[in-house]
Amino acid sequence: MEIIDSHCHLDDFFYEGKIEEVLANAEHASVTKMVAVGTHPKDWEFYAEFVRNHGHISYTVGLHPLVAKKEKELDQLSIFLEKEIKPVAIGEIGLDYHRLPHEQQAKDGVIEFQKLIFAKQLELAKANDLPVVIHSRQAFDDTFDILINSDIRGDRILFHCYGYGVPEMEKLKSFGTFVSFAGTLTFRKEQVEPLKVANPDKLLIETDCPYLTPEPHRPKPNEPAFIRATARFAAKTLDMSENDFCNLTYKNTEKFFALK
Ligand SMILES: [Zn+2]
Fold first, then answer.
1. pLDDT digits (tens, 9 = 90+) for 164-215
2. Cα(160) to centroid of ligand 1, in Å?
3. Sequence-ordered alpha helix ranges (H) in 151-241
4. Half-sphere exposure for 94 (CA within 13 Å, toward CB)
5. In sequence order, which residues have a C-beta less than 8 Å from that of residue 249 and are 6 or more positions away?
6. How far is the CA of 150 from the centre of ligand 1 (A)?
7. Largest separation between any pair of C-alpha atoms in the chain
8. What's the gap in Å between 135 CA and the centre of ligand 1?
9. For 79-99, what is each residue's pLDDT tens digit?
10. Is the domain 3-257 a CATH 3.20.20.140 member?
11. What is the Å distance from ligand 1's center to 211 Cα?
């Protein structure tokens, strides 16, 4: 059995001197591939270098809606699309309305900026024929509208860390979109029904480590090895063997990111 962590952040492990241990734990847990997801030029820089010596890790570049500060940061994206080892997607990008300012004008400003940065990155993804990893929190309708307007094919889109309900899942399903579940699945009951109605051929799993540690590993910081707990939970929910579930999500992840 092999498993892919389709969304992880590895830079902090490196800076804390824990990366070798974390990668060894992952190997021990049969996590044979990982997709390290970018949020800002600083981590893109790190991943572009790091993957040179770690052939089983791929990376993406994108400005996270809560991390992007200036439109100018977008200019740096195209540099990475010329790198020796190219990113496998643009992401994570999207909209996050979870903690908006209360004051109306400030709130409108933040939303407008997030939408602008998001739309521009979708254009770049389209121009470079890359899939997109979407971060969307409390902003489903706006996220979906912008995606529809971008003209990007549904099967080139991945909603990571799925946190919406069944109606939203149905909408994404009919659009052919990929969805990924994180460790929150193991302790947030409201994620169980959306998982059950998800299209199995468009289903991925991830850790989003060092965040969102699954049970029974909470409150430890999350790491790729812990994806096994999420896989076990999801397999049980879907009445599948852990082995079949891992094979399924492995194939889906390879397909979405065109991993070799
Ligand atoms: Zn993430």
1. 999 999 999 999 999 999 999 999 999 999 999 999 999 999 999 999 999 9
2. 8
3. 166-174, 192-197, 227-237
4. 24
5. 3, 4, 6, 203, 204, 205, 231
6. 22
7. 52
8. 8
9. 999 998 999 999 999 999 998
10. yes
11. 8
Tokens for 51, please give them. 């993957």
Ligand 1 midpoint to CA 92 (Å) = 7
Compute, in angstroms, the gap from residue 189 CA to the centroid of ligand 1: 21
> 84 alpha carbon to ligand 1 midpoint, in Å?
24
Share above pLDDT 70 across residues of the chain, in percent, rounded to a whole number: 100
Provide the 3-class DSSP secondary structure of residue 51. Answer: helix
Residue 260 pLDDT > 90, yes or no?
no
Residues 58 and 56: their CA atoms lie apart, in Å, by 7
8 Cα: distance to centroid of ligand 1 (angstroms): 6
Q: Which residue has the tokens 């991830």?
A: 206
Ligand 1 centre from 36 Cα, in Å?
9
At residue 32, the 3 state secondary structure works out as strand
The whole model's pTM is what? 0.97
What torsion, rounded to 10 degrees, do the Cα atoms 56, 61, 65, 71 define? 170
Q: Are 134 and 147 in contact (CB under 8 A)?
A: yes
Any idea how long the chain is?
260
Angle subtended at Cα 39 by Cα 147 and Cα 179, rounded to the nearest 5 degrees: 45
**Residues whose beta carbons lie less than 5 angstroms from ion ligand 1:** 208
Q: Is the peptide bond before 65 cis (omega within 30 degrees of 0)?
A: no
C-alpha distances out from residue 70 to 64, 65, 76, 141, Å: 12, 11, 12, 24
Radius of gyration of the chain (CA): 17
